């Protein structure tokens, strides 16, 4: 698996600059209306290398790119080499099967310039008789909108059961449609033999920072108490390792944890599902947020690791901790968040996933507002419109001792610095950088 390393290092997610995208612009994931829905659809199949060992390879790519400039060609080649690893992160031991539950997951690749691409994957067993191997349909897009792409993958899967040939006109129609603005829809006409022309409506959620999130995935697996321990570790930019067997569980839960930090952005290594050949990522001394399949647990525990928080998503428990997670957040604010999480968790409240997203997000945004909401009044504006953040008076302005103690650590984080850098640039007071 060693040759996978260099390819995957292109994908090794170090989005320190991602919050701003190129040269401080807002990232393309945020200002996306009117863009292409996707860059590529690739099909990744397993090719036999030796008895019982298979290697994931791209068996189809749409559209094929002609006339690329040299730099673009290199970038494309690197992207196309990394994709198979992330579509089959579980290693090379496979056997043909007659049944395989299809699963949906996603991964994130970071380009040299810090911009991000997302791979939305559906792993399924092609229709047929007898034993066969699963394949992955992967849509590569710059746009973060998980619900929308899951729906597109449903359509792809439906067509795959008829014939590969029915997939391409649908994807071509999608490529020619503009990506809708938040809250808006786009309708795509699609013809299927036997059933005629269908109209497929794709709608973007109103709240664009929740497009990539299913908080329900976290609440189903972890108690509100544990979610707060994880949040506390993430806020101080520590090392977090999540374990589960299913790729969909890992990718949903990790996207959800990263989204709890809104309006801040996780600015370090971020790999929702770590391919087997990259497991030594857990030896990094720098902060990371990674997902690892349960089958690799022994291997991970043997690695020489720095302190990290290890969360078992199957059993909803913490396997390893630093030990101070309980004390990180100011008690009063922690209890407020707990109260609202418990309220949404009680069974007599049946909420749609959008409602859960809004309620959970609100609880954590409220935490940040209570703690750092006064930041804009501590930016001193110079004549040329440049702002300078006054850190000491900002921390001193907080009355509660425990909040002040926490704040002194939080202002040292990369995510806070990135947030303030953005705020110093823009005179118009706006909430957050998301």
Structure description:
- Keywords: Guanine-nucleotide releasing factor.
- This is DEN2D protein.
- It comes from Campylorhamphus procurvoides.
- One of its GO terms (cellular component) is cytosol.
- One of its GO terms (molecular function) is guanyl-nucleotide exchange factor activity.
- It is a single chain.
- This protein is 36% helix and 21% strand.
- Strand 11 (309-312) and strand 12 (317-320) form a beta hairpin.
- The strands form four sheets. It has a five-stranded antiparallel sheet with strand order 2-1-5-4-3, sandwiched between helices. A five-stranded mixed sheet has the order 9-10-8-11-12, covered by helices on one side. A two-stranded antiparallel ribbon has the order 6-7.
- Residues 1-34 and 429-434 have low confidence and may be disordered.
- Helix 1 crosses helix 2 and helix 10 runs antiparallel to helix 11 (353-372).
- It has helices spanning 4-11, 70-87, 146-160, 167-175, 215-221, 224-235, 247-259, 297-302, 325-328, 331-345, 353-372, 391-396, 401-410, 414-425, and strands at 40-50, 53-62, 103-110, 116-124, 135-141, 185-192, 196-203, 239-244, 269-271, 288-293, 309-312, 317-320, 379-381, 387-389.
- The chain has 434 residues and is an alpha+beta fold.
- The two termini are 37 Å apart.
- The longest helix is centred in the last third of the chain and has 20 residues, at 353-372.
- It contains 14 helices and 14 strands.
- The chain is globular and about 70 Å long.
- Among the domains are: 40-181, Beta-Lactamase; 215-334, Rossmann fold.
